[in-house]
Amino acid sequence: MQGLLEMYYDISTLLSLGPSLADVLKALFEKTERKIGISSVLIWLLDDKKEFFELAASHRLPKAMIDVFTAKKLRHNQGTPGIVLKTKKFYLMKDILADPLAVPKYVETVLKTEAPIRSIVSFPLQIEGEVTGTFGFFFSEPKESLSRTEFITFSTIANQIASFIQNSKILRELQEKMKELEGSRSALMNMLEDIEESRRKAEDERNKTDTIIANFADGLLIFDKEGRLSLINFQAEKFFDLKSRDVVGRRVSELTTFPTLKPVFSSTGEDLKGVWRKEIQIKEGLTLEVSAVSVGREKEILGTLMVLHDVTREKMIERMKTEFVSLAAHQLRTPLSAIKWTLRMLLDGDAGVLGEEQKDLLEKSYRSNERMINLINDLLDV
User: Fold this and answer.
1) Coil, strand or helix: which one is 249?
2) What is the pLDDT of residue 2?
3) Interior CA angle at 322 toward 320 and 325, to 5°?
4) What pTM was estimated for this model as a whole?
5) Can you list the positions of beta strands (E) in the chain?
6) Residue 9: pLDDT above 70?
7) Is 58 exposed, middle or buried (0-12, 13-18, 19+ CB in 10 A)?
8) SS3 label, residue 160
């Protein structure tokens, strides 16, 4: 998680400086190659007629794939970009060799050149609610799923890339207007208005990111490098039944004075450095899995991120499972064992000599009882 947050802030900063898409993809690849095992990254954009996807930028994409993408254009309804365009949602093609939606010519090229492409993840690039392209990764091995942190991080970056593309388009339009209307006061005023609109949209994107953090499904506590609480989201406020204005700016030693926070920091101590995870019961009916990780850039530690995940239901299910196994073991195994030994005594002649027909019937009953005991044991194992 630390690496993805660090990568997210680095990419956000890079986008604000206005580089090329290729520079953004290069930086993104270098940040994520080892963390999630990607082999290449690319951006598709729809053409003006919205009939084909065009390769706008890529990094570490094999030349053979670039050639086939150029020679055989990807139609608007093909491959993972076509699915993303239709659904407006991210799509994971777990294995291109097994997915019927994979483009045959592209798969053929992968097999022929042994390109490191086996799985594809694509996120929509949306501008004003309309998908204008996709932002995706290739993996050299089949990919079953993305973690929650990976999904939130990369979908947010996709939104920022879309804003970056839109802002770049607006900038190009402004430059053209400047050439056409140079020296005109009205043209200058129009350009200033467009720039302000771009700034407002960039501010909106930052607000969206703040909203994601505030409404994160898990509780979040962020401490600065001095050990003071700098942010608490709404979910954490609900967990601890308090307001941010009462705790933000306080040190850990001060936070232990709050009854609902005391179990957390009494268990973790005042030293928040390092990476750790613990399960802590906050109160009756609320058990949290508390994870902490240091957040920083390069060698500088900027603070600590604490994630609070509600595992109350999981603990209840675990307790119910244990109770069920204990009950089943007693209620099912015990009577069957009694039947087994009773039949064994009869077969051994402890209750008198048996006729052949009687003995045969008891043998069958004994074997059936044994099968039932084995079945119950298998059921309890499952």
Assistant:
1) coil
2) 46
3) 110
4) 0.43
5) 38-46, 52-59, 74-75, 91-93, 119-127, 130-139, 219-224, 229-232, 276-283, 286-297, 300-310
6) no
7) buried
8) helix
Closest by Cα among 72, 75, 37 to 53: 75
Under 8 Å between Cβ of 325 and 380: yes
What is the spatial distance between Cα 122 and Cα 124, in angstroms, rounded to a whole number? 7
Structure tokens at 328: 């089943």
Q: 109-143: buried (b, 16+ CB within 10 Å) or exposed (e) per residue?
A: bbeeeebebbbbbbbbbbeeeebbbbbbbbbeeeb
Predicted confidence at residue 195, as pLDDT, reads 84
CB contact set of 195 (below 8 Å; sequence gap of 6+) = 174
The length of the chain is: 382
Average per-residue pLDDT for the chain: 80
In this prediction, residues 25-46 reach a mean pLDDT of 77
